[in-house]
Structure formats: structure tokens, C-alpha cells
Design the sequence.
């Protein structure tokens, strides 16, 4: 630690109480140097910056992966075809009653399968299509309707 030494130019010959006290006390007054004071100021730790940078990089990687995954799904010809078609709600209702109502209920309120009310708030259009055609969630079977029938079912599910 370095210090700046300050010598007070007060003479003891002037008499008076202050002059006598200065004469008796020959100590030097010392103050920390400016460099020492600056180094003691509160500064954020470098580790915090490193942690934040790691978090930002991880978030960027995750978002890049999700975008790439979404684009890969959009390149699926069946999904492209379904999304390009205009669906019909009444035909979607008929398809639902024939193929889905036994498990999801006549009004999509759930029996064996889960309720599908507000399902479009929980799943994207692509996710809904994949759920129907994949059969990844047992006991739901794989169901591969033609693209127009899937577009009709998708519109019906979005309107629940």
C-alpha cells in the first residue's frame, strides 16, 4: 500500500496553542494514495461478467437450435401441404368425431385422452400436426389423414 505524506507548513514559533501542539507533535499526517483509493472502490467481479456471458451464449445456442428445428419441421412436405390448405371447421368436427372422440370425448373434454380445450394455446400448428400423425404419445395411434383432412382437423382443434 502506498501513501502520500503531507507535511503541514505550520510554524511553532508563532506561539499560541496551535503552534505549541504542532511543535510537540512531530508526527506526519498520511493519506492513502489515489491509486490505492481507486483500487479499493467497489467494482463488479470479473466472474459475474463471465457468468452473464455464458448465460447469453447458452440462450443464443438454444434459440438457434429451436429456430433450426422449426425450419426443419417446416421443410416437411406433408406439413407444408397441410399448412398451405384452408381448413373447414365442420369437416374437422366430423373427422374428430370419427377418429378422436372415443378417447378425447365428444366435445374434446377428455376421457381416456386429455382434454383438447384450448389446445392451440398450448401447442403450435406444427406441434398439433405432429401429435396427430406421430403416435408418439401412447395410447394414441398414428393417424395420417390426407392433407386436406388434416387441415380441416387442425382448424377444428384451433377453434375448440
Sequence:
Amino acid at each position: 500500500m502506498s501513501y502520500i505524506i503531507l507535511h503541514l507548513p505550520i510554524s511553532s514559533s508563532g506561539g499560541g496553542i496551535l503552534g505549541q501542539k504542532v511543535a510537540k507533535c512531530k508526527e506526519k499526517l498520511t493519506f492513502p494514495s489515489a491509486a490505492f483509493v481507486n483500487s479499493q472502490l467497489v467494482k463488479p467481479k470479473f466472474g459475474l461478467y463471465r457468468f452473464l456471458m455464458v448465460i447469453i451464449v447458452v440462450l443464443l445456442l438454444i434459440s438457434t437450435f429451436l429456430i433450426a428445428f422449426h425450419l426443419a419441421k417446416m421443410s416437411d412436405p406433408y406439413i407444408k401441404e397441410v399448412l398451405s390448405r384452408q381448413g373447414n371447421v365442420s369437416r374437422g368436427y366430423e373427422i374428430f368425431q370419427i377418429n378422436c372422440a372415443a378417447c378425447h370425448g365428444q366435445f374434446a373434454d377428455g376421457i381416456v385422452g386429455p382434454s383438447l380445450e384450448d389446445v392451440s394455446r398450448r401447442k403450435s400448428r406444427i406441434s398439433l400436426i405432429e401429435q396427430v400423425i406421430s403416435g408418439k404419445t401412447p395410447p394414441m395411434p398414428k393417424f395420417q389423414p390426407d392433407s386436406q383432412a388434416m387441415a380441416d382437423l387442425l382448424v377444428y382443434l384451433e377453434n375448440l
